[in-house]
Amino acid sequence: MALTSHTDTQNTSLNRKYLNRETKGAADAFDGTQKEIYLEKTPSESSAEEVIHVLGSDIKDVNDSISAMSKQIVAQKARIEAIGKKQKDFDADVRAFQKDTSDPITGTEFENLGSEFESDKIIKGISMLVENEIQNRITNLEKQLDYEKKNSKIFSTSVEETLAKFLLVEKNLKSTNHKLEDEIREKTAQIIRSERLSAIGELASRLAHDLKNPLTVIKGTVHLLKHNNNGNIDELTKRRIEVIEKSIFRMTHQIDGVLDFVRESPLKKETSSLNEIIISAIQTMMVPSNVSIFFPREDIVFLCDPHKMQVVFANLILNSIQAIGAKKGKIVIHASKTEKDLLIAVEDDGPGIDPRVLGRIFDPLFTTKQEGTGLGLASVKNIVNQHGGKISASTNPTIFSIKIPLY
């Protein structure tokens, strides 16, 4: 008796080939209905969610096939058991017949035929084949699913990292753009200010020269008048001469300030004494009797342009004298040095600098005084910068701090 297995058709439906990325384009993977089922799983063309959905459908098809095969196995088992029952009935008839005959029938052919259809062995073999095939299919599907999940995570991570890099580059570009815009605005303002100061400087220089010559004549005449008639001048005349001298000094200082700011002569450095420079600066001005000036305890020798450094101290000391005014006050000049730098501080006990204008006091033409030109501290800063140094100011008390190289 021949048996036809109904599992071949079902196994055909399970016989699917899943193509990886390297075999896309092949046309030899079909299901039982000759329908092409390969999946192109490139992350850039198909999302991981779509791939997972297709794999889930395939797993469902496998489960349906398993269910159908189980039903067929049950039916096959029933048929085999029926055949076994008929074989047993036939054997009983043979044994009954043998009782009536002297030539017994061995029944070997029937026994062998029956042994070929032992239901337990057949079912066990079929079940093992089906289970192995199903397990292999499920394992392949799980591997494919894990592969797609891994690729989708890698692709997602790569996209996130690339996006983060682009955002960082964009942020840096914006920051750089803002800095460049600020620098352009600052440079433009500096150019405009420089052109304006250049025009003002030319005019001021011509006016200063024109004013300085007659002032020199007036100053010399007053000096002669004072010394030639020293014993014959009354107190009222002496006070008037002093007023004239102070006025001449103030005008001369303002003219010198303009010229110092306008002139851009190179430095003529030489080894100089700090205290000698301070004394020379004081000798060019009229120090009122209510103001005391204290020199540094240590005289420091350094390399500088002594004439220009004299202008620095003259402006700073005069600025302190004007701040102290008529009340009694003092100006203290501190000095120290490091291995490479000279540190100078000019301190006074005046009312201090208004914090609102502290950041502008070194700007050209900025002044809070009626008789000021706004060029004194600007000239000081230019000279210090020429020497490769820095100057800063603080208030309460007012201190001008200078740091310049010793050599």
TrEMBL record:
**Where are the annotated coiled coils located?**
131-197
Which keywords label this protein?
ATP-binding, Coiled coil, Kinase, Nucleotide-binding, Phosphoprotein, Transferase, Two-component regulatory system
In terms of SMART domains, this protein maps to: HATPase_c, HisKA
Instruction: Answer yes or no on keyword Hydrolase.
Output: no
Please list the residue ranges that the record marks as compositionally biased, kind Polar residues. 1-15
| Molecular function in Gene Ontology | ATP binding; phosphorelay sensor kinase activity
Q: Where is the Histidine kinase domain?
A: 206-407
Record's superkingdom? Archaea
Query: What Gene3D superfamilies does the database record attribute to this sequence?
Result: 1.10.287.130, Histidine kinase-like ATPase, C-terminal domain (3.30.565.10)
Q: What is this protein called?
A: Histidine kinase
